[in-house]
C-alpha cells in the first residue's frame, strides 16, 4: 500500500463509527433531554445512546475485519483492537463535542456546521489513536483534505438511501 492508501486504511474505523449511528439511531438521547445553563439542550435529540454504542461496535468490528485482511499493518491483534477502539471512541466523542458547541451557538439539531461536522470527529479520532499507532504529518494533512469530501459523499448517499432526512 502506498502512504495515502495507508492513511485511509488507518482511519477507516473512525469513518464507520461516525457514519453508522444514523442506522442505529435510538430513542434515548445521551443528554436525557436535559438543558444546559443557557436554556438550550446539552447535546440534542440527534445524539442517542444506541447511536453511540452502535457506532463504537461498528468501528471495532471494522478494525477486526481489517486485521484479518492485513495483520502486518497492526503487528498484533491487540493493537488492531486498541486502535479501532480509540479511533471509534475518538470519532464519537468528537461528534458529541461538535453537537455541544452547535447547541451553545444556537444551531438547531441537524443544522450543518461546516468545518465542525467534517473535521471535529477526525481530529478527535486522530488524537486518541496517535499513542497507539502513529501516522506521518503528510498522512494527517492528506486526511484533513480528503475527509470533508468523503463525509459529504457519505451523507448524500445516506440521504439517497433515505437513512437521513437531509443530505448533510
Ligand atoms: N445519531 C445517533 N446517535 C449519535 C450520533 C448520531 O442516534 N451518537 C443519529 C441521529 O439520528 C442523528 C443522525 O444519526 O440525527 C445523524 O447524525 P448527525 O448528523 O451527527 O446528527 P444531527 O442530527 O445532525 O445532530 P447535531 O446537529 O447535533 O449534529
Ligand atoms: Mg448532522
UniProtKB/TrEMBL annotation:
<keyword id="KW-0548">Nucleotidyltransferase</keyword>
<comment type="similarity">
    <text>Belongs to the CDP-archaeol synthase family.</text>
</comment>
<dbReference type="GO" id="GO:0043338">
    <property type="term" value="F:CDP-2,3-bis-(O-geranylgeranyl)-sn-glycerol synthase activity"/>
</dbReference>
<keyword id="KW-0594">Phospholipid biosynthesis</keyword>
<keyword id="KW-1208">Phospholipid metabolism</keyword>
<dbReference type="GO" id="GO:0046474">
    <property type="term" value="P:glycerophospholipid biosynthetic process"/>
</dbReference>
<keyword id="KW-0460">Magnesium</keyword>
<feature type="transmembrane region" description="Helical">
    <location>
        <begin position="113"/>
        <end position="132"/>
    </location>
</feature>
<feature type="transmembrane region" description="Helical">
    <location>
        <begin position="81"/>
        <end position="101"/>
    </location>
</feature>
<keyword id="KW-0812">Transmembrane</keyword>
<keyword id="KW-0444">Lipid biosynthesis</keyword>
<comment type="function">
    <text>Catalyzes the formation of CDP-2,3-bis-(O-geranylgeranyl)-sn-glycerol (CDP-archaeol) from 2,3-bis-(O-geranylgeranyl)-sn-glycerol 1-phosphate (DGGGP) and CTP. This reaction is the third ether-bond-formation step in the biosynthesis of archaeal membrane lipids.</text>
</comment>
<keyword id="KW-0808">Transferase</keyword>
<keyword id="KW-0472">Membrane</keyword>
<comment type="pathway">
    <text>Membrane lipid metabolism; glycerophospholipid metabolism.</text>
</comment>
<keyword id="KW-1003">Cell membrane</keyword>
<dbReference type="GO" id="GO:0005886">
    <property type="term" value="C:plasma membrane"/>
</dbReference>
<dbReference type="InterPro" id="IPR032690">
    <property type="entry name" value="CarS"/>
</dbReference>
<keyword id="KW-0443">Lipid metabolism</keyword>
<feature type="transmembrane region" description="Helical">
    <location>
        <begin position="138"/>
        <end position="159"/>
    </location>
</feature>
<keyword id="KW-1133">Transmembrane helix</keyword>
<feature type="transmembrane region" description="Helical">
    <location>
        <begin position="49"/>
        <end position="69"/>
    </location>
</feature>
<dbReference type="Pfam" id="PF01864">
    <property type="entry name" value="CarS-like"/>
</dbReference>
<dbReference type="InterPro" id="IPR002726">
    <property type="entry name" value="CarS_archaea"/>
</dbReference>
<protein>
    <recommendedName>
        <fullName>CDP-archaeol synthase</fullName>
        <ecNumber>2.7.7.67</ecNumber>
    </recommendedName>
</protein>
Amino acid at each position: 500500500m502506498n502512504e495515502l492508501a495507508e492513511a485511509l486504511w488507518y482511519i477507516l474505523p473512525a469513518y464507520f463509527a461516525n457514519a453508522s449511528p444514523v442506522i442505529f439511531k435510538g430513542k434515548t438521547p445521551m443528554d436525557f433531554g436535559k438543558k444546559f445553563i443557557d436554556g438550550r439542550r446539552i447535546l440534542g435529540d440527534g445524539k442517542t445512546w444506541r447511536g453511540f454504542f452502535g457506532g463504537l461496535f461498528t468501528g471495532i468490528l471494522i478494525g477486526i475485519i481489517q486485521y484479518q485482511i492485513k495483520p502486518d499493518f497492526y503487528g498484533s491483534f491487540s493493537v488492531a483492537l486498541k486502535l479501532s477502539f480509540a479511533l471509534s471512541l475518538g470519532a464519537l466523542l468528537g461528534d458529541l463535542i461538535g453537537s455541544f458547541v452547535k447547541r451553545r451557538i444556537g444551531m438547531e439539531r441537524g443544522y450543518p456546521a461546516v468545518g465542525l461536522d467534517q473535521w471535529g470527529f477526525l481530529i478527535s479520532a486522530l488524537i486518541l489513536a496517535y499513542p497507539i499507532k502513529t501516522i506521518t504529518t503528510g498522512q494527517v494533512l492528506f486526511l484533513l483534505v480528503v475527509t470533508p469530501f468523503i463525509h459529504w459523499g457519505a451523507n448524500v448517499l445516506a440521504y439517497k438511501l433515505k437513512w437521513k432526512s437531509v443530505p448533510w
